[in-house]
Amino acid sequence: MSPDILPLSAAPASAAPPVPLIDLVEQYESISTEVLAAVQQVLTTQRFILGEGVAAFERQVAAFCDARHGIGCASGTDALILALMALGIGPGDEVITTPYTFFATASSIHRVGGRPVFVDIDPATYNLDPAAVEAAVTSRTRAVMPVHLFGQCADMEPLWRTAVRHNLPIIEDAAQAIGATYRGRQAGVLGTIACFSFFPTKNLGGAGDGGMLTTDDEDLAARLRRLRVHGDVGRYEHIEVGLNSRLDALQAAILSVKLTRLADWTAARQANARRYEELFREYGLLERLVLPQAQTDCGHAFNQYCVRVRSGQRDEALARLTAQQVGCAVYYPKPLHLQTCFADLGYREGAFPESERAAAETLALPIYAELGIIRQERVVQSLAEALGVRSAAPVISLPNMSRKAA
Ligand SMILES: *Cc1c(COP(=O)(O)O)cnc(C)c1O
Predict the structure, then answer these.
(1) Atom 2 of ligand 1: nearest residue by CA position
(2) Coil, strand or helix: which one is 378?
(3) Strand (E) or helix (H) holding 227
(4) Domains (ranges, CATH) in the chain?
(5) Ligand 1 mean position to 14 CA, how many Å?
(6) Which residue has its alpha carbon closest to ligand 1 atom 5?
(7) What is the Å distance from ligand 1's center to 295 Cα?
């Protein structure tokens, strides 16, 4: 685009290079030799569906989470659907979940014929408010589906109490939370069945769609393995109707390579989060933002780094950062209880004030492992400008040590 057709509002204030919200190229470059060898290996065998490579990756993910079983499938969405099917959830059944999440959390419940019952979130963590869950249990409740949103585990202890009291299974939507911990345990072993996604932008992302279920329950694992292949128990004997939802061997091969780096990448995301806090302090932004609040004894995996922008300036900040070519996004602008496709559920605006407030106030900033301090400081500087914070610190004010660390 030539400068004379560039809209005025989009003219970058400086010649600094853009900062993407996520950049997968740099990550790929660091592992490309291994990835290509793994892909080559699969192509040599010409075995693409399930097989030993997928089974090995299932064991690796199960071992990573300390779960007994891992069951690969075609996506995180399918993992949720398969989990609900394996638990026998269907028409008339209620599943309690959050409206402040990605669409698939609730659509999976709808897809099996169940009814999503929304309850509000805890504004500090954006995760399900456990007291609201307990209050929403009815005689038709069949499961609770907490989401470990943005990579921080839901407050599980009170949810376990509710689950035990009412004899309900817990399905973890851990799509954003591989590598997150709760009291020393991994996301993936905090409920009856857990669901992971390998969508490319998740912390463990494939070269396309992919998903995984983990469980300690032998019978559920067997049923999940059957449900992902049309309910086939072998030799074209179908004892129930399932899906066609497999993890393919190419994805498993690539993901196996990436899994060996996951702990390092998660640590880098956590280091970036700490550095944001330093930079926000330095730039006088701490009074203007609410930072992600890591809960005691929780390891936040930071699939997203979402700040709350105070005093109704979120959309303005979003527009200004975008104009400066600083990647940012809103997760999620419309809570699920207000989505047109769920109008039949009968929820109105105002039903879940904390979810609605979060949808209006949060802004996701770049947090990917390879971000580095130069780009990160540019994000913070642009945000300070966007919010009209004049006391923006000069670039040289940080101690040399922390600058060099990047
Ligand atoms: C990504 C995601 C899903 C769906 O995963 P796909 O692999 O894209 O189908 C479900 N729930 C949450 C919270 C997600 O972030």
Answers:
(1) 175
(2) helix
(3) helix 218-227
(4) 5-23+262-397 (3.90.1150.10), 29-259 (3.40.640.10)
(5) 36
(6) 76
(7) 23
